[in-house]
Structures are given as C-alpha cells and as structure tokens.
Design goal:
Blueprint lengths: L11 H11 L2 E6 L5 E4 L19 H23 L6 H14 L1 H4 L3 H7 L4 H8 L4 E2 L2 E2 L1 H14 L16 H5 L40 H9 L54 H29 L3 H4 L8 H36 L6
Antiparallel strand pairs: 1-2, 3-4
C-alpha cells in the first residue's frame, strides 16, 4: 500500500466480481436491503432515474449500465474515501464493497478507516467479513461475497469463496494461520550479586577543612580519605581548594568536630531502616519537644504583649477579670514550655541510649 496515490480505477476483474456477486436479473425486483433493483444490482438508470417494479432490461444493456455506474459513481467515491494508494487488486476488492453499501454508509465504516490507517492485512480482513448482515440477519450470500472480496484484496482467485459455508473463515481460503505464534520469552537474566558492604568505622571525625571543601572534594574525602579509617594505607590528606579573594570568609575560630561514640557498633552488622533506629526516634522526639517549647514561648510572649489591651480583649468574656484570664494563659504557656523542654531532654537521652546500644549502620 506504499507509493504514489493514483486515480482509483476498477479493472475488468473488479467488474466481474460485482457481476458474480449480484447475478443478472432482467426484471426489477426488491433486493434483501429493500431496494428496487435490476440487471446486475443497479438501483438507478444512467440518467439517475430510480428503477421501478415492472422495468425490464437485457443482459447487454445491464452490463453497460453496470460499467457506467462504476465509472461515474464508484470510482469517484473511492477517490473521496480512500486517502492512501492501493494496488489494482485492492481497488477492485474495495469497489465491490463500495458498490454493495454506497458511499454514505462506507464513509462511516471501520473498514474504510482501517484501510486509510494502513492497518495490518489480518486486521482489515477480520473486519471485512463482518459486513454480512441485511435486515438484521446474517446472510450466507453476503458472507460469500465478503470472502470473495477478501481473496481479491490479497491478490488471489475468488472461486473458493462462492462455495464457502458459514464455518469457512477467510484464513482458510487465504492460507493464513488462525493465530500468530507467541514469541518465546527471553531467558531471565540472573540478578547481579550485590557487593558485601564495607565495615563501618566506630566513629567519624570530619577534617577541619570540611566547611571550605567543594562538594566534589567532600565526596572524594569520604571515598578515599576515610578509607584510612577502614584499614587502608595511610595517604596524603586531601587539601581544600583555595578560595578566590572575593569568596574568602572572615577569619573565624575553628571548633573541633564533635565525635559521636558508638561503642557497640559491629562492622559486619546488616543495615536497618533509619525509622526503626532508637537514635532516630530519640532525635525526632527531641525536635518535636524543641518545637513545642518554641511555640509555647511564643504564646507566652503574646500574652505579655496583649496585657495592655486586656480590657478590650475581654469585653466578650466579662465574667472574669482580665488578670485571671491572662494568668490562665500564662500557666498554659508555661506548662507547654516545660513539656517541650522535658520532651527534648527525654528525646536526647533516648538518642544517646540508641547510640550506645547500636550494633549496625542505618539506612
């Protein structure tokens, strides 16, 4: 279906397909679709006048009427409906389908859309044979017609289609397997073994130059300089990159980094999630206590600030004197501060206890 789009012309094979499907009838009759028909399936004369019951035609005139209808109606309709190039056998097949249903119906059919989308041949053929119903009933004659069109679409002779039964599939006639074989699943890839974790040192002391190191130097120190603490060969310490004059900070007193002792840490112990760590729980509790103390201090400060406006503020609670109300608020704030300070102290104690009892690293 690839290539340049040309005028949709129907060949003699396409005309013969329509003649075979319609059959010749010299007298006007009502077809299964309820239309008055004559000759080889025509419903109008060449001048557009409808066929009426009682009209007659001979076979030679019927062939001429069919050719005229295909040239003047079917081929222009195919040009309007089909937007992709078709092979001659495909044009003949679709012409038979279009002659049967007409341009208005075919324009809204899924088959026309699939052809324009250049869908796989199997998908197009599966849809093609669905159009075999007339007046709400599936008809064997229409099914055979669709099978013949599918054979022509695939460039094959149509003889076998005219003797098909309702159980015959287009795959039986075209020679396509009913199911596409399932591709073998690729062999599973063995997971890569994770390297054994390096033993963690019992303490971690950062160098004095840490705050002046770049991020790259800090990473290098952790990956190489700290190797000394893991039993590696002692090497030269990494020096911090000199800062430009504009970026130099004022001289300051360098304080020794706090060393966190973990006496029970086992170098070969497996790591566990941080949220399961006693140290983490204690530090979290300490932080929440600090926040509670800060909030309560703010409340207490607010109480002190609002004392000059006590009369106005207590206009709505005139049952109690202003001093009583602010004493109650001050007591609540003081209790909040005390609770926050206690919670922070307790959290720090829990964290310290967690460090002392820690046996493995945390994630």
């Amino acid at each position: 279906m690839k290539g340049l789009k040309t005028m949709m012309q129907v060949s003699a094979l396409g005309i013969e397909l329509i003649r075979k499907a319609e059959g010749f009838c010299p007298s006007a009759y009502i077809c299964p679709a309820g239309l008055v028909t004559i000759g080889y399936g025509n419903t109008t004369w060449e001048d557009g006048e409808p066929i009426h019951l009682g009209d007659e035609i001979d076979e030679a005139a019927a062939k001429q009427l069919l050719w005229s209808y295909v040239r003047n109606e079917v081929e222009p309709a195919m040009d309007r409906l089909i937007k992709v190039p078709l092979q001659p056998c495909q044009r003949d097949a679709y012409a038979g389908f279009l002659f049967n249903f007409g341009e208005t119906k075919a324009a809204n059919y899924t088959l026309t859309r699939l052809i324009n989308e250049e869908a796989p041949t199997a998908e197009i053929c599966d849809w093609w044979v669905k159009y075999r119903v007339a007046s709400g009933k599936p008809l064997l004659g229409l099914y055979r017609r669709r099978l013949a069109e599918v054979l022509m679409w695939n460039g094959l002779p149509t003889d076998k289609a005219w003797n098909a039964t309702t159980s015959t599939t287009w795959r039986d006639l075209v020679g396509v397997p009913a199911y596409t074989p399932i591709k073998a699943e690729p062999a599973p890839v063995a997971p890569t073994a994770k390297p054994e974790p390096k033993p963690m040192p019992r303490t971690l002391t950062l160098p004095d130059e840490w705050d002046t190191m770049t991020a790259a130097q800090q990473t290098a120190w952790l990956n190489t300089g700290e190797f000394i603490a893991l039993g590696g060969t002692v090497g030269e310490p990494i020096k911090a990159a000199p800062l430009p004059d504009a970026a130099k900070a004022p001289a300051k007193v360098v304080m020794a980094k706090k060393v966190i002792e973990t006496p029970n840490l086992k170098a070969d112990a497996p790591a566990k999630p941080m949220e399961q760590s006693t140290t983490f729980k204690g530090l979290s509790k300490a932080d929440s206590g600090k926040e509670a103390a800060i909030i309560s201090t703010g409340v207490l400060a607010g109480v002190g600030y609002s004392i000059p406006y006590a009369d106005k503020m207590t206009a709505y609670v005139s049952k109690y004197p202003p001093e009583t109300i602010f004493k109650v608020l001050a007591i609540i704030a003081a209790l909040g501060i005390g609770y926050g300070l206690w919670r922070r102290w307790a959290g720090l104690m829990i964290a310290e206890d967690g460090r002392q009892k820690a046996e493995g690293p945390k994630l």
